[in-house]
TrEMBL record:
It comes from the Eukaryota. Keywords: Amyloplast, Chloroplast, Glycosyltransferase, Plastid, Starch biosynthesis, Transferase, Transit peptide. Its EC number is 2.4.1.21. It is found in: Plastid, Amyloplast; Plastid, Chloroplast. InterPro entries: GS/SS (IPR011835), Starch_synth_cat_dom (IPR013534). This is starch synthase. Belongs to the glycosyltransferase 1 family. Bacterial/plant glycogen synthase subfamily. One of its GO terms (molecular function) is alpha-1,4-glucan glucosyltransferase (ADP-glucose donor) activity. It holds the Pfam family Glyco_transf_5. Residues 130-215 are annotated as: Disordered. Residues 277-519 form the Starch synthase catalytic domain. SUPFAM superfamilies: UDP-Glycosyltransferase/glycogen phosphorylase (SSF53756). Residues 137-147, 159-173 have a biased composition (Polar residues).
Amino acid sequence: MMASLSSLPFTVETKAEISALLHGNNRHRPRFPFVAYRQRKYKEVAFYKDFTCGFSLCCDKLSGEHLRRHWRAQVAGPESVDGEGGDESEDALQISIEKSKKVLAAQKDLLQQIAERRKLVSSIKDSVIDTTENEESNQQKADSSKNLEFASSGGAGTFDNQNGSIFSESTVPKTADKVSRTLPSAAGGVSNAGEKQPVQNITKIDPSTEIPPKHLKGTISRTVWSDDLPSFLATTSGTSDPNTEMHEGLLGTEHEETDSQIEDIKPPPLAGTNVMNVILVSAECAPWSKTGGLGDVAGSLPKALARRGHRVMVVAPKYDNYAEPQDAGIRKIYKVAGQDVEVTYFQAFIDGVDFVFIECPMFRHIGNNIYGGNRLDILKRMILFCKAAVEVPWHVPCGGVCYGDGNLVFIANDWHTALLPVYLKAYYRDNGLMKYTRSILVIHNIAHQGRGPVDDFSYVDLPQHYIDLFRLYDPVGGEHFNIFAAGLKTADRVVTVSHGYARELKTPEGGWGLHGIINENDWKLRGIVNGIDTREWNPQCDAHLTSDGYTNYSLETLHTGKPQCKAALQKELGLPIHPEVPVIGFIGRLDHQKGVDLIAEAIPWMVGQDVQLIMLGTGRQDLEQMLRQFESQHQDKIRGWVGFSVRTAHRITAGADILLMPSRFEPCGLNQLYAMNYGTIPVVHAVGGLRDTIQPFNPYDESGLGWTFDSADANKLIHALGNCLWTYREYKKSWEGLQRRGMTQDLSWDHAAQNYEEVLVAAKYQW
Ligand SMILES: Nc1ncnc2c1ncn2[C@@H]1O[C@H](COP(=O)(O)OP(=O)(O)O[C@H]2O[C@H](CO)[C@@H](O)[C@H](O)[C@H]2O)[C@@H](O)[C@H]1O
């Protein structure tokens, strides 16, 4: 066997890996047979594919013997499978190699011809576009909305499960006369328990003539046109079997390879063959809607995933009139608490990400109060949002092509969208649909769980036996209904936003009643520290530092730029402009979590120091009142800005010398990351993500990034802040070192995105 292998035109590593596949040597064993080969020379890849001959099972699932037998069957002919092939098999192998070479040459030829034809077609198109550009684009828009209408009609439309009607939904076409022109199947709705309906009016298309929009190229799932699937399944990436999916992945790779050969550009995506369709679903998304860190994450993580080559969508509610998203022309009706509610989908493509906004009267004009209203109001909004979001991949054709369910992973965030994994299971997977779609639930803050009386279960439209997922008992709330609990149990994977918080969640203090469930599901939990949007939060190009005396700055101009921002901040807030007086900032929600009361306890000490304190926040009314009071009592030293102002947050981050974060618990914390990127030194309670991200300053070896204190205690805060102020005043070089180390870290999302990708892959291959 090895003799045969050694005569093959593989590199040494490839041989080692194939040998590992055959003999079970894990050291060289690639995770999946095709992944390791993608970036190799085309010839070698093609040969290897030939070698495996579309043998698409994940090698993990194959025994070495199985592979050996398959190898012999493919290379030396079926007769050699049972006997020892010997010389005959060597000859057959040589013949096979020769054949493969010929096939490759022919393939190359063909590709060249295709390339020439494409060039010809595009030059003809270009000349036509000059004169008919507007007509063309209108036509394209019309075509895509036809596609979209069509996908909707056969999409996850109306279906009941065995327990009767779960939800009813009807399509409300914008224009009744729209007819599908290009989609391969129509009216293939799904009825009881996913039973297939006959597919009618099938118009087959030649996939080679349907060139996906440029931004989708190489990342969209391969479309398999099928006559006997419901239409929404027929337009997805042929994933009736993960083995097929793997093979599809291989074919997709081949296409990408050939495309890039043709165009002679485009390096492979960073994600390699792990490229996936990802839909992040969040109740808020910056810059359109934000009450805190969740909005920041939803606005920036998807872009980093897209940069790695994934096709990424964000789904968020549309709370106001946003400039960018356009009405996608789709209307759907969902049942919420027995009422029909119509939603409309809006859409924009920005920085490589599809942003889809769900608009309906329930969301309208609450941008300033996203979580406002009573418990039932919020619950109903989240039910509607999750029902609508889980169907987005069927209804909203981004760039003209719906995501479908192939290679698809949803990323839900916090309790607001924890119903999504449950709906995915109850409405789809339990009915044999979306079998290979996975869901990940990200915990940004376990303190908010979507709790209510057990009777709330009647609102969520789920089969009765699902009640056990939601039912939870704890000494504080007694027996109650808990949405986060159900999401955590149902999601394929769970992520939280730091390693420290992942540990804390398993303790009674940190798990807020859910620690039992988290411990039971420990195997699927992973901590990934958030990144920051380095375009949005970057002193070199921060748009909020270009007026009112502020200035952009970098590490090189820190010594002039930062003092200028500090002076501008002091001036803007009416504080005495003293360059040598340290400015301490605080930005955050005014609540128990953020430890504002610890700052309050430390105020008498602080005002005795030569410092200025600037606090920005909204939240609990008593704490807002407290901020106002501090300001009025210490006009020359304290500013308490009650409100939500992104611009002021940026300016404080740039102008302050020190950022205070005495949070009682902090799953990750973004402000300390922003601060370090601006040369502002954090003083934090070493908890959750703060402990993960702020290495304490060590004056002996001049290492570390800030000051930490180990318990939520005002005296500890004072002690840490005192040391910090002393260093600021007395040890300028150390201070500059702290600033430099903070500013030169890679805080971008790129590393975190890579970690998320590992979770996506783990979810994908999980049963
Ligand atoms: N009054 C105000 N005006 C303007 N901007 C304001 C503001 N108050 C807060 N912000 C901004 O909101 C964001 C707050 O983010 P954090 O991560 O610090 O906390 P939050 O508790 O909201 O997030 C939760 O989710 C995130 C994301 O995972 C975790 O980092 C965190 O630990 C967890 O509690 C920052 O961008 C901050 O500048």
